[in-house]
Amino acid sequence: MKPKLGLQGPVIAWQDSWAGEASDQIMRTGTGSIYPSQDPLPPPGKFVQAMKELGAEFYVHHMFPSLAGQSEMIRDMTKYGMEVCLGNEYGNINGPYAEGTNRYDVPDEALLEAARSGKLIGLLYDEPEHLQINASQYRKDAFLPHWGVKEGSSLAESQNTVTAAVAARVAHVKAVLDDAGLDPDAAPLVSEFVFPTMFHTKARGGMVVCPKMMKESFQSLQLSTALGAARQYGRAMWICADLWGPDAGPWFTRTSGFPGHSPEEFASALRMGYYMGPTHLFTENIDVLLQYGDGRFRKTEFGDVWDEFVRGFVPEHPLTWTHRDADPDIVFIHSDDSNYGQNARLFGNRGLAAPDATQSVFHVWHLLSHGTIPAHGSCMHIPGYDFPRHRLKAEVPKERFPLEQGWTFPPEEQVHPLYYPVNNVLVYDEKVEERQLGRPKLIIVAGERIEDETLKAVRRRAESGATVVIASWLAGGKWPESGRAGEGTWLVTDSFLTDDRVMETVQPFLGSPGCWMQRFGGTEVRMHKADAQGFTLDFEISGR
Predict the structure, then answer these.
(1) Are strands 442-446 and 467-471 parallel, antiparallel or unpaired?
(2) Number of C-beta neighbours around residue 394 at 10 A
(3) How far is 401 from 441, CA to CA, in rounded Å?
(4) Which residue ranges make up each domain of the chain?
(5) 145, burial (CB in 10 Å: exposed 0-12, middle 13-18, buried 19+)
(6) Of residues 122, 110, 127, the one with CA closest to residue 6
(7) CA distances (Å), origin 36, targets 39, 184, 209, 298, 500
(8) CA quadruple 460, 465, 470, 474: dihedral, nearest 10
(9) Is the Cβ–Cβ distance between 263 and 303 less than 8 Å?
(10) Kind of pairing, strands 523-529 and 516-520?
(11) Which residues pair with residue 242 across a beta bridge?
(12) Is 160 exposed, middle or buried (0-12, 13-18, 19+ CB in 10 A)?
């Protein structure tokens, strides 16, 4: 049940070992600049050997839109026995784009070449929810969302457009492989999320879910949402430990925000992600783990953290569960509205105002997290956060990087802890079926809309003994009154923030603010603050 462990290639440290100088001729990061490589170019064999020495079982390759070095890379993955996942980030940033979108798709011929090697395990789509909503992030000539959208569509119609486009791309990849006599399931599309939106939309379309840890996320919200989407739609779950982030400090630093987390936070995040039982877990990017010079690689303090995790922690803590065993005490059902707190461009639809009902999702998370998650957004890209990396960028010219000893910044002003306590929550969308709910003690229903059959299923759960708290605009004409519902409770509210009845009703189910818990079958993963602010975690694993 051990997840496969992987590493993603470099974007600043050194040129791609197969593409060489082509690396310094395109934008390799989302910063909007071309970064010259900082270290000499390592030969392919030494790079692959370095990954193997770090215990990597697969390599996430930043594919060049020009296909520079592509065939040679695939040849060496076969030669050295390393599995590979092809990533589309460079194409997203630089083009070329699928017609009418800002999305780069792996060309069919490159897909087939990789698949025929027997080493291809997936096609990674980098932050496609971000590029659906913020379609001008990289492509500047037009506003063309990642999976398309029809301006003026409703939320539900926009969501269906995205799901249909995802499903079409999944079907295309399968057909290309099948027509070539290859396993049609050999290259699943993996959706890597920086914002906790569209997990369910993409999973419904057929994509594997891959939440990013660290970055600018609220960890419990991000992981509970991903776990729920994977469970509801029967998908695998990968996890990306993303070292880009908001903070700065006295640690090896390649550039502003990279890494934006301390080695200690990285160590805790790796353990946290491992305990979620993913099928695959990888680090973005390898630049921070290694330096190359004088013909050899040297580990940084982050490399030491990864090495200890792979060679020490993982073998000493075998898993007896996977993400598929997630078993909630609290189910949070909300429509997949794609709003993370900026209240604009929902599903990439610029003409669609964010309905007030979408705010209810943030209000519920504020409630479930004992007030630690803000009530106006679901990640840190919202008002109220000032990232230390911005000061680092302003004060240190990029020619001075890398900084061997990092940058002195007051620890108390760092903004990204890992700890946001919730009590065994899974998130399902507005289409969840009764058989998928499990036997939760508390069900909360919010967001902009709900399917009629889902509403009926929730009501039946209340009649069987569950406590249900539901937004008044969703209860509709069927069950608009609060009170007993069979053996359970049915509370209808206009506000999850200001209605005192809501807190009184849910309080017995929220657990302790001193513990974040997730249950997998008969095993409880309990996480506690290991420092005053919760940048690091202590873990307690217990069976029932």
Answers:
(1) parallel
(2) 9
(3) 52
(4) 4-320, 325-380+419-527
(5) buried
(6) 122
(7) 9, 39, 32, 20, 56
(8) 10
(9) no
(10) antiparallel
(11) 214, 284
(12) middle
β-strand partners of 342? none
Stated pTM of the model: 0.98
Give the 3-state secondary structure of residue 456.
Answer: helix
Place of tokens 């890209």: 381
Distances (CA, A) of 37 to 61, 144, 194, 395: 17, 31, 25, 21
Q: For residues 335 and 450, is the Cβ–Cβ distance under 8 A?
A: yes
Instruction: Using alpha carbons only, give the angle 380, 382, 385 rounded to the nearest 5 degrees.
Output: 60
pLDDT 10s digits, 41-76 = 999 999 999 999 999 999 999 999 999 999 999 999
> Per residue in 337-346, pLDDT tens?
999 999 999 9
Instruction: Match 């502003």 to its residue by tokens.
Output: 256
> What's the topology of domain 4-320?
TIM Barrel (3.20.20)
Rounded Cα–Cα distance for residues 119 and 121 (Å): 6
CA distance 78 to 218: 38
Integer Cα distance of 340 and 216 in angstroms: 12
Type of residue numbered 370: H
